[in-house]
Amino acid sequence: MKLSTFLLKKWIQFPIHIKQLHQIITMIGLEINNTYITKNKYPGIIIGEIIEKVLYDQNKKKCLFKVNIGKKIINVISNITKIKKNTKLAVATTESIFFNKIISSTINNQKSQGYLCVYKELEIYNKKNGIIKFQNNAIVGSNISQYLQIKDYIFEVNALYNRPDHLNILGITRDILAFLNKKPKIYLFKKRTNDQKSSKSLSVIVDNPEICPRFLVQIIKNIKINLKTPLWIKEILKINEILPVNPIQDICNYMTLEIGQPIEFYDLDKIEQFIQIKMAKNGEKFSLNNKENIILDKKTLIIKDRTNILSLAGICSGKHAKIRKKSKNILLIAYYLDPSYIYQTTKKYKLFTHISNRFERGVDYNIQKISLNKITELITNFLKGIPNKIIQIVNNEYLPKIKKILLTKKKINKLIGYYISNKKISKILISLQFKIIKKNKFWIVYIPSWRFDIKIEEDLIEEIIKIYGYNKIPKKTIKTNITFPYTNKKISLNRIKILLTDRGYHEVVSYSFVSPKIQKLLFPDEKKSVFILNPISKDMSVMRRSLLIGLITTLIYNKKRQENKFRFFESGIKFVQDKTKEFGIRQDLMISAIISGYRFKEQWTDKKRNVDFFDIKGDVESILELIGKLKFATFKPIQSLKLNPHKSTGIYIKEKYVGYLGMLSYEIHNILNLNQETYVFELYWEKMSDIIIPKFQEISFFPKNYRDISIIINNNISAFNILQTCREIKTNYKIKISIFDLFYHENIGENYKSISIRFEIQNHHKTLKEIEIDSIINKYIHILKEKFNILLRNKKI
User: Fold this and answer.
1) Would you say residue 123 has pLDDT above 80?
2) How would DSSP label each residue in 601-658?
3) Rounded to an integer, what distance in angstroms lies between the CA atom of residue 236 and that of residue 228?
4) How many helices (H) and strands (E) does the chain have?
5) How far are the Cα atoms of 164, 245, 258, 310, 376 from residue 322, in angstroms, in the given order?
6) Quick one: which of 43, 343, 577, 764 could link to 360 by a disulfide (CB 3.0–4.6 Å)?
7) Overall pTM surpassing 0.85 (yes/no)
8) The pLDDT of residue 87
């Protein structure tokens, strides 16, 4: 929605600085996408010149002036009588916001055609605050915005989905006034005294009150449709990118922006006998305005007369009974619909309109009569016409009930962590137009009809702190006792996230429901997949069996944007069918990651190098090291259709399977057009979250000794098995073992490889002699020869 400060200030009715307004709009929960300026802030208000003073009514203290406004001379009645001839003033015409003041002003049966503006009414600061006068060089007939260089600031805002009341000026104004602690002074409509009974019998029938509990009809006769839409209404529609069509539609569109209630309108003379809201018949056709026909089913709510369908209720109108250039009598319809019905129907027919957008979020169920009164007032003012009494059908049984929430001071203090006085809390709730009953330690709060989002006590507390001001709550460090981090023998998932972030990963948060195409690519067997009965779309119709689906989607999205270094991780639930579990679904908390592209960003000191298997294996080992389980971990071959069999492995801790890591298969690479090798890991968090507490020992003061050996082994023997065997050999020394080189060469043999192992040896009680070190190394070589039939590589190749 595009919010004009000119229109907004008309509702607020007191001066406010543009910077303060910007801050308040943000604080009440609206996202400001853009701010820009329009030059014509005052449409219909121009520079006029007094020609002569014609009449003076001493009783009413009013004068009639002849005023030149450029193209013509008009009569202007004003209560400011002391104005000299040839004075140039700001004159509002009938196309301005002062239309009502103009047409209501008369003197000696002569009607006013304009209005002399004062600074205060236009919110222009001036010390005298009187009538607006211009210098002699001002051009008669030009808009005052051009002369005064006054600009209208437009805020392009996004309302949250659960705040439909922010889709109109009235709803936004309520929150702004509450934030400023001002009482609402919002003019909605005047009391109508000229209503007449309809001379044409029109029955109204509501067949489905459970969906449409409130339905109102208004007839206005003898309108002058050939009159133009007021310029100021066109300006507001133009700002919101709504094209003017005809005066009736323009006024209805304007009122939707202002109050939030969509209004349907028809040519009364084209309506046959009655208006009925009911379910369509199976196979019934409905013609849209674009001449397209859609086939309806029996669960579609329609509005029709005796023979023709007028509209799909809450979605769009059809071509029958449209307003024409010769229309004289019109029919206006306002109603409240169950939002859940509109959501389902729009999705079924894929008809997403600005009307359905409002109805599916929720329209205030008490605003319909106010809207009809206000729109009738505008139509009769601009287009003349005689309104009949409103026909209203209400079924209170199906109307939403007024919600009542118990709000306790204890809960407020607990959630906010800051003391706000009871008096201030009551004041905020009242300013938001909540009705309250105050007790000793709690409030009974009645929620107004336009606040669909307020459902629980926490929602009320959010409103309190929002209006009170987040910036007013002081920043204080939380005081707590220092405790040993591993006393509960569990490590926080957040700690693992910090580790991965430090290693260059970015966290991803994706939907739990995913595309069945990508899921089937990773898991061809669909029997264990959990399908959604009523999905949002086909691309979100199945619950994820792996977090990799969201990570792969994120990777593809970023690749298309010419990125070349990718490290993403995500934590969340995966869903698998399991008859042994409640509801037949097993939910596992996982932590997964994906890497691809360059290892480092391109720079002159390092050559380009793509990530490989050992990069992601190192990341997994860093996690295992953090939780103290690396020395208990084993990596074994794993069979998986989604992984390359030569570059993947299963992860086991004390022979317990906890996850896997490896490269995605070449088939997946080709189908998804990944181009570069992509590596992933996925771990069952519940199987890893318990931490092995490290044992502390005194640091040795004696030197470390290093020895390296290179061995030749069969390709089928993994380096991990060599390491594991070495680590299982018991000695009286502190020995750290690691592999620092892997080597292949034709002189070694086609099915063999060379591995270089480094031993770090230390004694806590003495300095080791050479003969003792050699004895230790020989022990390791002997055991490796017996178990793996290794050969020592003693010469360079």
Assistant:
1) no
2) --BTTB---B--HHHHHHHHHHHHHHTT-GGGEEEE----TTEEEEEEEEEEETTEEE
3) 15
4) 20, 40
5) 28, 12, 23, 9, 18
6) 343
7) no
8) 92
